[in-house]
Design brief:
Blueprint (H helix, E strand, L loop, with lengths): L1 H32 L2 H22 L5 H18 L5 H14 L10 H15 L6 H12 L4 H8 L3 H18 L8 H23 L3 E2 L5 H17 L4 H14 L25 H19 L6 H14 L8 H14 L3 H15 L1 H9 L11 H13 L2 H14 L1 E2 H19 L1
Parallel strand pairs: 1-2
Helix pairs in contact: 1-2, 1-3, 1-5, 2-3, 3-4, 5-6, 6-8, 6-9, 7-8, 9-10, 9-11, 10-11, 11-12, 11-13, 12-13, 13-14, 14-15, 15-16, 15-17, 16-17, 17-18, 18-19
């Protein structure tokens, strides 16, 4: 019916505006109120008002400007009710009078607004917060996801997510966290934390650690959107560009990572015609910009190197065309720049492809079993290398160990299938 269609269209417009610009709204409001919890509440109030009014009055010409104006006015009302904050009322009223004329055209304030978003990203990853809290708060304030969406993405309850977010806001207030951009070494350290959170969100979506699904694409795409935003806000940071490139290039494979029946498909078996060419172009362009900055002397690190590895896969028309020698050399550099057991396991894969399974097994043998004792990563890679070597009995046993360790049902099915295939090869 027409009324329902109008309501649906208005609701869709509200949600579209929120997802596109919630970070700008909360960032601008935090700058004005100096209170991230209040800013988030005011933005939510404006969202609720839009859901109530737009189906009746119609979608405004500039939805984001409407949300911003409504939130600011509600901020004024809030401060009017607090006698000890009357000074802020005057400041906010002046801000609204001075800005409302420009609000319909937010592009004229883009530098200011984007600075607000960058501040919000850094605030969400304040060192006083735990890793779990940083992820939840970033998805909430910067990603614009609802508590229910975050709970589904992280495979936890809404109450748990709500508690993490509330606790994070209280922690920020107690720590006296400011909305100003950190400088010097503090900024460098915090930027590393920001990128680590975005990368963690992507990885959880790209290969879920638990649950029934092999992937949660919406979460991976949200992380990629955050990486694009961060790259637009810090365009002279090669590691930020490297992170964007890495997520674009890996994210381009999402459609090809599942068969038509929903089964996981490994990289070498994927139909590369399903890879997202636009994301590949974006990723290679970001990597090229990072390379230009690196050539001028700006240091690079793990994200740039991982993106360079992902680019080798993206450039290969077929799996057989992959330059594994180049990838192995990049992993050798990465192992020096960002040493760790996961890097070593991936280096074993690369050396196994470049120089033969025994070379990969030699690299894998140096990984301390205690470092990844509860992860299926080491036994699954060992199984792969042993299978390529023709040691089918040992490969099957390794795949079975890996299957017993994973908490992801899709990965378990894949590992059990590979173990069964190795058993069949033995029977031939």
């Amino acid at each position: 019916m027409p009324a329902e269609t109008t309501t649906d269209a208005a609701t869709d417009a509200v949600h579209a505006a929120w997802r596109a610009d919630s970070a700008r709204l909360v960032g601008a409001l935090t700058r004005m109120t100096r209170d991230v919890e209040l800013a988030a509440d005011l933005a939510q109030d404006a969202l609720v008002a839009a859901l109530e009014q737009w189906p009746v009055t119609g979608v405004p010409e500039n939805p984001t400007a409407w949300l911003m104006t409504t939130a600011k006015r509600r901020g004024i009302d809030h401060f009017r009710r607090a006698d000890n904050l009357r000074r802020k009322v005057t400041e906010l009223e002046a801000a609204v009078r001075g800005e409302e004329a420009q609000v319909p055209d937010l592009e004229s304030q883009v530098d200011h607004i984007e600075d607000d978003v960058l501040r919000l990203v850094f605030l969400s990853c304040h060192p006083s917060l735990t890793a779990d809290s940083r992820v939840a708060l970033t998805l909430r304030l910067v990603g614009g996801l609802t508590t229910a969406e975050i709970a589904r993405a992280l495979l936890t309850s809404e109450s748990t997510v709500g508690q993490r977010i509330s606790r994070a806001k209280r922690t920020l207030a107690k720590a006296g966290a400011t909305f100003e951009l950190p400088t010097g070494q503090e900024r460098t350290d915090r930027l590393d934390d920001v990128m680590a959170v975005v990368y963690l969100i992507f990885n959880e979506g790209y290969t879920a650690t638990a649950g029934d699904d092999w992937m949660r694409p919406d979460l991976a795409l949200e992380a990629t959107r955050l990486a694009r935003m961060l790259a637009s806000l810090a365009p002279d940071e090669p590691e930020v560009l490297g992170l964007q490139a890495l997520l674009e290039l890996q994210g381009s494979r999402v459609r090809a990572r599942l068969s038509p029946t929903g089964e996981p498909v490994l990289l070498e078996d994927q139909d590369r015609s399903q890879w997202d060419r636009l994301m590949i172009r974006r990723g290679l362009a970001a990597l090229a910009r990072a390379s230009t900055l690196a050539a001028s002397g700006t240091p690079v690190g793990r994200y740039f190197l991982q993106a360079s590895i992902a680019a080798e896969h993206a450039r290969a028309a077929t799996a057989a065309d992959t330059d594994w020698v180049r990838i192995a050399s990049l992993y050798d550099v990465l192992a020096g720049a960002a040493p760790g057991p996961v890097v070593e396991v991936n280096r074993a894969v690369a050396h196994g492809r470049a120089y033969g399974p025994s070379a990969g097994l030699d690299v894998l043998a140096a990984v301390d079993p205690a470092d990844l004792s509860d992860s299926p990563l080491v036994p699954s890679v060992r199984g792969d290398l042993l299978e390529r070597e023709g040691s089918y009995a040992n490969a099957a046993a390794a795949f079975e160990v890996a299957a017993s360790l994973t908490r992801n049902e899709g990965e378990r099915a894949l590992l059990e299938r590979r173990a069964a295939e190795c058993r069949l090869r033995l029977a031939e």
